[in-house]
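Tokens as discussed.
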């Protein structure tokens, strides 16, 4: 009798183990984004690496505390959280971790933990096994304009029992931005014109006339009152993100400093950190306009601040967004004394090409860095109200990501000096994913009242408004591949603003005060807005409209305005 029961129980256990988990669709999209075409079925043996985001313990609690410690009116302002505190908020529960790893083990997979809190796992498997694991059919999608192709699906599922444990799986239904938004170098400057610019820069007079049309480090120093003196803190650091095979060249930086920062050593260089098989080869043919721009203007403006170029490769074949995440997890895992206090990124994509789950997961990750005292800055995009690049949009404007995330600082672009006006390409608008945060609600309400019925129905009036701030973004002189020429874009503005924040951090550290960290509540405070120059002219056309007009106060073209270094020091009590 006992033996019969044992055999029955054994058979029952075998049957239960053989029964597949009931699946439920976790994410789905209607079709591939604009510009992508179906390109067949990949080989089932093709390897894919996935990141699995687990539901965090109390991310809402972390963000609630972040909004308090980043508010200048708070008694705990600037008391940034330790890594241990952040982990307590963001780690998954033991049950969540065990359930997901058990599911993976049942499918012959062992997960690697890729974040310090354990909320992100990584697995590498084949297309065939991934189809079974996620109850889907992965396909190849090509982007004819760039010649790039990616493996994605239009829907994937997970076991119903894990719906409350898994936040997102990537790459699945979120497509990358294959264009990357890399700026183009205009015709190189002639020697006579370059000599004239150098001479005017050396004069250091108040806003040289040339700065109205051509930007150099001396112009940024004159327009925004940025000092040329060297940073004194040994702990201040600035990070620059690099993607899509954009490589920063030491020879171009040396030439740039020789031309435009003759007061500092031309041998000044940057540190290198690589992720996901990233690299930074040197040579004229390896020069990257975006990478050179970002490095030359962070080093060229933030005098004496150590700069690290973080080059993210494509080993994981998941586009910029996976790299965005890996940079966050890398910095979060660094010791507090080693991590940069400011990170600038000049890449992004239209919000409607990112799923809500992926957008939420990345935004949550940015909030953890903000809580650690890191200022996260992104270029807002270069397509006006049409998004990250000029895109067809007949019925509604296209906000960009991650600018719509309320836990990072979005930087738009301006041009000219008398007066400084909005650059027409400066992307701005209102998120369709993220609600309007309390720190900006008063300013956004004032703008919408002044806007009236203009563009009614084309944007989400209750969404998070962006950009937050702006800086010059037209005809930045850089050296790329040995040639000097001009570059336009909000990707000029973000490293510029980041460099200025780093110099403020240097002064704060020297005074024994905490760094600025998550910037937005400070920027939108009365002290913060007083340190910014309001931009009231210009607009950002797109989608068959004139876009949004710049107005007094905050606007979705230039945000709260451009920086004034002396006033920023006053605003932080220096």
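Sequence:
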């Amino acid at each position: 009798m006992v033996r019969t029961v044992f055999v029955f129980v054994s058979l029952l256990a075998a049957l239960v183990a053989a029964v597949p988990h009931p699946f439920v669709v976790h994410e789905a999209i209607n079709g591939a984004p604009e510009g992508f075409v179906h390109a067949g079925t990949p080989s089932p043996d093709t390897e894919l690496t996935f990141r699995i985001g687990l539901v965090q313990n109390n991310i809402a609690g972390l963000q609630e505390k972040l909004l308090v410690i980043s508010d200048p009116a708070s008694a705990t302002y600037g008391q940034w959280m330790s890594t241990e505190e952040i982990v307590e908020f963001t780690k998954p529960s033991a049950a969540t971790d065990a359930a997901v790893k058990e599911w993976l083990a049942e499918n012959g997979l062992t997960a690697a933990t890729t974040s310090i809190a354990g909320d992100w796992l990584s697995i590498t498997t084949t297309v065939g096994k991934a189809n079974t694991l996620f109850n889907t059919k992965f396909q190849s999608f090509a982007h004819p304009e760039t010649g790039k192709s990616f493996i994605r699906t239009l829907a994937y599922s997970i076991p119903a029992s894990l719906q409350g444990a898994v936040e997102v799986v990537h790459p699945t239904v979120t497509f990358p931005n294959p264009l990357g938004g890399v700026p183009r170098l205009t015709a190189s400057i002639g020697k006579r014109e370059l000599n004239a610019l150098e001479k005017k820069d050396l004069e250091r007079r108040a806003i040289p006339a040339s700065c109205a049309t051509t930007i150099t480090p001396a112009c940024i120093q004159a327009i925004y009152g940025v000092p040329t003196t060297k940073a004194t803190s040994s702990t201040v650091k600035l990070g620059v993100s690099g993607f899509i095979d954009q490589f920063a060249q030491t020879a171009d930086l040396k030439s740039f400093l020789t031309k435009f920062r003759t007061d500092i050593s031309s041998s000044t260089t940057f540190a290198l950190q690589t992720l996901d098989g990233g690299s930074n080869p040197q040579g004229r043919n390896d020069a990257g306009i975006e990478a050179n721009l970002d490095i030359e203007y962070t080093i060229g403006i933030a005098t004496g601040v150590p700069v690290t170029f973080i080059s993210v490769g494509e080993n994981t074949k998941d586009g910029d967004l996976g790299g965005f995440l890996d940079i966050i997890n890398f910095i979060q895992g660094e010791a507090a004394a080693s991590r940069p206090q400011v990170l600038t990124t000049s890449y992004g994509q239209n919000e409607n090409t990112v799923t809500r789950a992926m957008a939420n997961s990345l935004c949550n990750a940015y909030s953890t860095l903000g809580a650690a005292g890191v200022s996260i800055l992104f270029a807002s995009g270069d397509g006006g109200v049409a998004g990250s690049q000029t895109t067809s949009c007949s019925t509604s404007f296209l906000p960009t990501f991650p600018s719509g995330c309320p836990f990072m600082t979005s930087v738009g672009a301006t041009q000219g000096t008398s007066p400084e006006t909005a650059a027409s390409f400066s992307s701005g608008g209102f998120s369709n994913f993220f609600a309007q945060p309390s720190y900006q609600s008063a300013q956004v309400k004032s703008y919408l009242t002044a806007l009236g019925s203009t563009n009614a129905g084309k944007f989400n009036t209750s969404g998070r408004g962006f950009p937050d701030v702006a800086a010059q973004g037209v005809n930045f002189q850089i050296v790329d591949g040995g040639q000097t020429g001009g570059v336009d874009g909000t990707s000029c503005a973000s490293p510029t603003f980041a460099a200025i924040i780093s110099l403020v951090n240097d002064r704060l550290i020297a005074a024994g005060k905490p760094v600025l960290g998550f910037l937005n509540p400070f920027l939108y405070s009365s002290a913060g807005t007083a340190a910014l120059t309001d931009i009231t002219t210009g607009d950002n056309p797109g989608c068959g409209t004139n876009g949004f007009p710049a107005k007094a106060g905050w606007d979705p073209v230039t945000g709260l305005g451009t920086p004034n270094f002396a006033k920023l020091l006053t605003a932080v009590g220096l």
